[in-house]
Amino acid sequence: MYKSDIEIAQSVPMKPIQEIAASLGLDDESYELYGKYKCKVDYNLLESMNDREDGKLVLVTAINPTPAGEGKTTTTVGLGDALKRLGKRVVIALREPSLGPVFGVKGGAAGGGYAQVVPMEDINLHFTGDLHAIGAANNLLAAMLDNHIYQGNQLNIDVRKITWKRCMDMNDRQLRFIVNGLNGRINGLPREDGFDITVASEIMAVLCLSRNIQDLKQRLKNIVVGYTRDDQPVTAGQLKAEGAMAALLKDALKPNLVQTLEHTPAFVHGGPFANIAHGCNSIIATRMAMKLGDYAITEAGFGADLGAEKFLDIKCRMAGIRPSLVVIVATVRALKHHGGALKKNLGEEDLVSLEKGIPNLLKHIENVTVKFGLPAVVAINRFPTDSEAELRFVEEKCREMRVNVALSEVWAKGGEGGLKLAEEVIRLAEKEEGSFRFIYEDEMPLKEKIEAVAREVYGADGVDFAPAALKEITRLESYGFGPLPVCMAKTQYSLSDDPKKLGRPKGFKITVRNVKVSAGAGFLVVLTGEIMTMPGLPRIPAAEKIDVDETGVISGLF
Fold first, then answer.
1. Average confidence score pLDDT of the chain
2. DSSP code of residue 102
């Protein structure tokens, strides 16, 4: 009988979180309980572990996502469980789900089948309140900004040049563009405004890239909220907002410890989207996983062109870390979709569509192994409908690029279904080959950094810059922001900025319509195509199927 993800999660007994913490050598003073199965670990613990050797860091990424599904988080969890079965001390590090996708179309971010982190209902809903704290800090800054203007505007802020938006953790297209401050001066100054989804807030990126509370406060202080009438940046520090914001975030900064269905420890902390933000969990959680485990398994959002590129070019640059290897997740179904096959036909053997779609996977392999210089293994998330001929074809094409393929059946079998993948991961990690490098260097001009990502990672012929983008690049470089890395905001569905161009498109250019600074996070956001920072709900949102009974048991959550 088929069981949904939530039914599987509810059927497997969890261990008290104290047992999971004890397995990592944590004492009672180093964590705070959030119920029976969740706790927050003190980030100051990292300072006492400086002398410990780091474990191997494994990055899990994927091809460009499709409606057929890839299973990146599921593979990450299953790989961690498989490595544990092979006697390795493993800690997983994942992002927190946003309520927007949970109630929308994508679903949660706790894995699936028998490769899940639990308690999955808590993780996919309010969890420990981190995203609410981020939203509160974001909106406190917005309130203080508008109050400063109302109370006399001593900083001479130009209300037409305010860049800071309010946020909420929900998909709501109605709030993308609004007018506020109406009905008289007592209610503020009328102006155009809008909302971002919380995970797109710069506060989310700041939290994920901060090393400790002091670093957090400095980053909050650096946030640019707008510009003066003589075109100078205005920061949260000038509004004296960083202290109160940090007070709201002090607990959110602590990584959340949970467990998999097989009781492997897992940090779930921070949740920026990879199409509109940098798409990685927190530096604190990743570094803690590396200190506490022989192997730290983490993932980066969406395809390798987004999440992995930002993990390597932004997170690794700021944290001073590098992965030992990269796992690239793909499915035969998704590759056939990239080759033009219709969703309803993906269960049928179709070597023609597979051959047309596999260049998408091969480009991601090229990016990881050639552009970034890292070892890689391809994990094929196996479906029952995959034919032997299709699987053999994928394996042959990958081996032509000197990369091995491992079949993954972790959704159905948990860690047991990931043993082959785990063995290849151990083999590559122990070889420690590769010469990791960034796609661009800090001192390169901003235009050249953007062009390097577009050309090297996406395979574009070049970049078309809108006049507004060119003007903003010149202005940001004049303010001294030129050395910052670039965070590309691009559709996740294609290597290009057009979601309809599947596979490995050729002969295209990336269109950059604007650039904005996230000075607190420490990067520049490059807006391409028609990317939006506030998603909308689909025609039939997942929320319609979610319910809870009189005993508090939730149903319909995937």
1. 94
2. H
